[in-house]
Amino acid sequence: MRRTRSRNKYKKYNIVKILIIILGLILISYIGLSIYYIKHFYHGTTINGVNCTRMTVKKAEDKITKAVRKYNLTFEEKGGTKEQIIGKDIELVTLFDSDLGEIKKKQNPFLWPFGFIQKKDFTIKTMLSYNEELLKRYYDNLKCFDENNVVKPVDAYISEYKKSGYEIIEAEFGNLVQKDKLYELVVKSINDLNTKINLEKEECYVQPVYTSKSEALINAVNTMNTYVSSEIKYEFGDAVEVLDGSKISEWLSVNDEKQVVLNEEKLKEYVDYLGRTYNTFGKTRTLKTSYNQTIQVKGGDYGWWMNREAEREELKAVIKEGKKTTKKPVYFQEAAHYGDDDVGDTYVEINLTAQHLFFYKDGKLVVDSDLVSGNVAKKNQSPTGTFPILYKKEHATLVGEDYETPVDFWMPFYENVGMHDATWRSEFGKNIYLTQGSHGCINLPHDKAKIIFENISKGVAVFCYELPGTENYNK
How high does pLDDT run on average in the chain? Predict the structure, then answer.
């Protein structure tokens, strides 16, 4: 039992002894290296780009001087081109003062282990000297600044329209150098004794503002392709107008902010063209009368009348959605048919000279009646021209400056002028209208007005004309 205790005690003694020896060796090494680093730079010390690890100030100076003597700065340019500025050409030399020693003095020799953990980089501007005028001269003479060699960058842009649409044409990056930025890098590189500058890596070239990856440009080309994918078909009877990308592309442009602009004036011109071409409002019409005479009826407000402003807005919306559709224009007023004959075979024919009316429905004569029109003596003549039935109303009261008259069948076709029954009259036709006519309306027998009312609808054309030689009085 005593022997076991003695052995354990001896082992513990030996371990303690070994640890003391190890610690002693570490301490001796630490002190020795601390003394060493009194005159030497830490591990990982770099001065102006020169590795001065574990060097004395004198050896560091010698190494830096040697590096300066053979120093060349190489420019790595696009296309594999390389250029150099030679250190001796710009009179690059070392001018050591106390700076190197000051760096050494600030180094605590007892903290040398931190040199293995954290590297130290120092730049001493006063250590190097060069002729700035020579540097600028050699710098300005670099081939990368020669106008004959310089290619300026060109922004990516949107192509001309093709059947397949628009695409982005990639930017030309060129080789135009940011001269001031590169010069700053040159000065820094010389002071740090760095031997090369890669112009692309250092982003020294002027870049295009827009490339094929620019979001604004991508959005713009997508918008334009949406617009030109539209196909709008207008059908005006047998005539067809198709608006597609080939035309819409002429209306598109991109502003400086890469926003797509739809030319409102061009859009207006197109809608105006449709209006001018297919509007029949107020045009002169050819009528083969019931008297076997073909006449020209001028004036009136019957016919197709496009609401151009509203149509522009609708058309613009369709284009922006990129729709393919058959579109009916927005109208203030419509006619019975498209084409030269927009009246068709349902219409009212009023011969003011003969004081007679004919009503045709689907080509068949439905009403043939005398009438009384506006009083000529009082200058209340009924208007001539072609007009649409504005609406029809049963049991209406006609009100004027000096009258208030109830009627059973009211069918206005121009402002406050229309056809209606006139039960207060006992006769119609002849020359009554010359002195005893209406305020402008077409007075009809009650039964005739009733038949017309029951068979006519809004929009039906009313021809009002004068035809000399068809008078039915003084015969």
Answer: 90
- What is the rounded distance in angstroms from the CA atom of residue 185 to the CA atom of residue 206? 15
The Cα 167–Cα 222 span in angstroms is: 9
The DSSP code sequence of 51-89 is: E-TT--HHHHHHHHHHHHHT-EEEEE-GGG-EEEEEGGG
What's the CA gap between 411 and 422, in Å, rounded? Answer: 13
Q: What is the pLDDT of residues 46-95, one digit of tens each?
A: 766 677 776 776 676 667 777 788 999 999 999 999 999 999 999 998 87
> How far does CA 189 lie from the centroid of its chain?
46
* CB atoms near residue 224 (< 10 Å): 23
Which amino acids are annotated catalytic?
420, 441
Residue 45 β-bridge partners: 120
E strands in 192-303: 196-198, 231-236, 239-243, 252-254, 260-262, 285-288, 294-297
Tokens at 86, concatenated:
């030679």
The H or E element that residue 245 is part of is: helix 245-248
Asked, colleague to colleague, whether 229-281+300-333 and 347-465 share their fold, the answer is no
Domain ranges of the chain: 2-70+95-129, 229-281+300-333, 347-465
- Provide the residue type at 395 as one letter: H
Instruction: Look at residue 94 in the predicted model and tell me its pLDDT.
Output: 84
Per-residue pLDDT tens over the stretch 31-41: 756 667 666 76
d(CA 323, CA 313): 15
- What is the fold of 229-281+300-333? Ubiquitin-like (UB roll) (3.10.20)
Q: Does domain 347-465 have CATH number 2.10.70.10?
A: no
pLDDT at 112 over 60: no
CA distance 298 to 385: 5
- Are 440 and 417 in contact by the 8 Å Cβ rule? The answer is yes
Residue 181: its H or E element: helix 179-192
d(CA 80, CA 76): 7
Q: pLDDT-based confidence at 269, cuts 50/70/90? A: very high
- Per the rule left: phi > 0, alpha: psi between -120 and 50, beta: everything else, 427 is beta
